[in-house]
Amino acid sequence: MNRIVIGCDHGGFEYKEMIKEYLLEKDYEIIDAGCYDKSSVDYPDVALKVANTVNEENVRGIIICGTGIGISISANKCHGIRAALCLNEYMAKMARNHNDSNVLALGQRVMGIGLALSIVDTWLEATFDGGRHENRVHKMMKMEGE
Ligand code: RB5
């Protein structure tokens, strides 16, 4: 799947632009859910927009705010979303291998852009292991009421 939806609040705007450029160069098709400048916006609004796109377009998503916390908590309240806030490549790999996360959350104010791009690469390339993790993911999703 080479289509990705990406969204941010004002605290993640620069990284959203940089990650977008990076992925465009790698031939990903990007759906940009905003925000589109540094004006203050509320991260739950962006999280909902990204979540809706993930569900409707059957794509994975990347969300960014200052810490990654507010936008990931918000996304995880939306139907069908398993958003993982990742601070390193190991977390990114496990978020796919074990948790089948469909949204990656990053914090612009807590890491350098080099690490952020490396986390993005790791997360996009890793796959779900299935097996014993299948039932756990299923139980997780049942908690939101199918
Ligand atoms: C915005 O200032 C900031 O609160 C937001 O980007 C994020 O860090 C919230 O979790």
Percentage beta strand: 15-25%
Radius of gyration: 14 Å
Work out the helicity level: 40-55%
Distance between the termini: 25 Å
Q: So what's the overall shape?
A: globular
Determine the CATH topology.
Answer: Ribose 5-phosphate Isomerase B, Chain: A
User: What would you give as the CATH superfamily?
Assistant: Sugar-phosphate isomerase, RpiB/LacA/LacB
Strand arrangement across the biggest beta sheet? 2-1-3-5-4
Beta strands, count: 5
Poorly predicted runs of 5 or more residues: none
The distinct ligands, each listed once, are: D-ribose
What is the number of independent domains? 1
Helix- and strand-based class?
alpha/beta
Number of helices: 6
Descriptive report:
It is a single chain. The chain is an alpha/beta fold and 146 residues long. The protein has one domain: Sugar-phosphate isomerase, RpiB/LacA/LacB (Ribose 5-phosphate Isomerase B, Chain: A), CATH 3.40.1400. The chain is built from six helices and five strands. Strands 2-1-3-5-4 form a five-stranded parallel beta sheet, with helices on both faces. Helix 1 crosses helix 5, helix 2 crosses helix 3 and helix 4 runs parallel beside helix 5. The longest helix is centred in the middle third of the chain and has 15 residues. The mean pLDDT is 97. The structure holds D-ribose. The site of D-ribose has 8 residues, from helix 3. D-ribose binds next to helix 3.
Topology (elements, then pairings):
Layout: E1 3-8, H1 13-25, E2 29-32, H2 43-57, E3 60-65, H3 69-75, E4 83-85, H4 89-97, E5 103-107, H5 113-125, H6 132-142
Helix pairs in contact: 1-5, 2-3, 4-5
